[in-house]
Write a structure and sequence with these properties.
By secondary structure, the chain is of the alpha/beta class. It has three domains: 210 residues, FAD/NAD(P)-binding domain (3-Layer(bba) Sandwich); 131 residues, D-Amino Acid Oxidase, Chain A, domain 2 (2-Layer Sandwich), CATH 3.30.9.40; 48 residues, no CATH class. The protein is 36% helix and 21% strand. A hairpin with a 2-residue loop joins strand 9 and strand 10. Helix 3 runs parallel beside helix 7 and helix 9 packs parallel to helix 12.
Length: 416
């Protein structure tokens, strides 16, 4: 049994803590808020969990919302130009995705951890706290996401492609959203992804929140563009009002779907921006002679949510770290081990970074070709959807013009 501290009580930190606890380790979690405070607060993200990440939660006994959160069987993708739908297609991954409000999930996981005898210290940790925790524990892991503790880990300049946000973000959780004009009532399980040419994206993701099933709406706006109108952090009602006007102008086929929509609760909105960043995995917050701490998931590899990878990367990282801790036996959790563990995780995570960076920029011609072919060829649409579920496929067919051309040439001709 090893003594481990996990700083941060989100998707990655609690998954790791619960897996380590189940394996017999003595785990302390440092959390800023109690379950009651989490449930009473604002929404935390616009998460979507794809099949492979859901499987990791099931394997850990943490898939508490299978059957309660609506399954998303396919992506409905529309490319809009000047308020007109220029291209549309449906793309189904091999397994359905789902989305659980992080207020619901993290509060329940915190309670489960404590019910099983886990120790939680409710306070806001600072860098000096990390040094003290590292002195008391055999391993200290920082799962602080986008929080200030991420700053104790140095930015990896070679792997970090951006020094500013590529999108501004605005989200609201809604009840009462109907089907889009181009979809029938039976299409309620679709995630609706709209690319507004030159301006950004609009995503509508079915999910479950504190009050039951909902629709999670996310704007990804190019900074300074026509969709970038939420910088003053409006309340949920005002955010919805501005959303209706944006949809009327840019995505009119969704306008009637929001006619009866209303925010799910007073904390149903979230506004912000993310600078995609990769950080070095090890820090010594107490100075060069002090003990090392290890970062994980979004603390080290932070992506814009345009490809919906955050919660999925968190699950992958947590599962990998948990297995590595147990496999370590009684050997020390020294810095070479920490760096080797992150290097193994990076072999997966780098594909997510590449995929997300590509989708943030002006789409290259070969990506546009793949989208056009997805509208005509079901196999292309299915592979695109599965790339969201498993970005390690990205380099094999979508990362370069050569790979895309080679893949498309391998497909059987469509019947005329």
């Amino acid at each position: 049994m090893r003594e481990v501290a996990v700083v941060g009580a989100g998707q990655s930190g609690l998954h790791l803590a619960l897996e380590l606890q189940a394996a017999g380790h003595e785990v302390t979690v440092v959390a800023e808020r109690t379950p009651e405070q989490i449930r009473a607060g604002r929404v935390l993200s616009t998460q979507a969990m794809f099949g492979p990440a859901r499987a990791l939660e099931r394997a850990a006994g943490l898939a508490l919302w299978d059957g309660a959160a609506p399954d998303t069987g396919a992506l409905h993708v529309v490319v809009g130009v000047d308020g007109q739908a220029a291209l549309r297609f449906d793309a189904a991954p091999e397994e359905p995705a789902h989305s659980v409000d992080q207020r619901v999930k993290t509060a329940a996981w915190l309670e489960l951890f404590e019910e099983r005898g886990g120790r939680v210290e409710y306070r806001r940790a600072a860098a000096e706290d990390l040094a003290r925790l590292a002195e008391r524990n055999e391993l200290t892991v920082v799962a602080a996401g986008r929080g200030p503790l991420g700053g104790v880990f140095a930015r990896d300049a070679e792997r970090s492609r951006f020094d500013a946000p590529q999108r501004t973000l605005a989200a609201v959780y809604l009840h009462g959203v109907g089907p889009a004009a181009d979809l029938g009532p039976e299409a309620g399980d679709l995630a609706r992804i709209h690319i507004v040419a030159g301006a950004g994206e609009l995503v509508l993701q079915p999910g479950v929140t504190l009050s039951g099933p909902c629709m999670i709406l996310l704007w990804e706006a190019v900074p300074g563009g026509p969709l970038d109108i939420f910088g003053d952090d409006p309340d949920p009602e005002e955010l919805l009002a501005r959303t209706r006007e944006l949809i009327r102008r840019h995505v009119p086929w969704e306008y009637d779907a929001l006619a009866s929509a209303e925010p799910t609760d007073a904390g149903a909105s979230l506004v912000g921006a993310v600078t995609p960043t990769v950080r070095h995995p090890v820090a010594r917050p107490g100075g060069a002679a002090g003990p090392a701490v290890l970062g994980m998931a979004d603390t080290l590899v932070l992506n814009d949510p345009i490809t919906a990878q955050g919660a999925n990367n968190a699950a992958r990282c947590a599962a990998r770290y948990a297995a590595a801790v147990t496999e370590r036996g009684e050997l020390p959790f020294d810095e070479p081990w920490m760096r080797g563990l992150f290097a193994a995780y990076w072999e997966e995570a780098r594909h997510t970074v590449d995929f997300t960076a590509t989708m943030l920029g002006p789409l290259p011609d070969h990506i546009g070709l793949a989208f056009a072919q997805a509208a005509a060829h079901p196999a292309v649409a299915a592979r695109l959807a599965q790339t969201y579920a498993d970005p390690t496929d990205f380099p094999h067919w979508l990362a370069t013009p050569e790979a895309t051309t080679r893949y498309l040439a391998s497909l059987p001709a469509l019947p005329s």
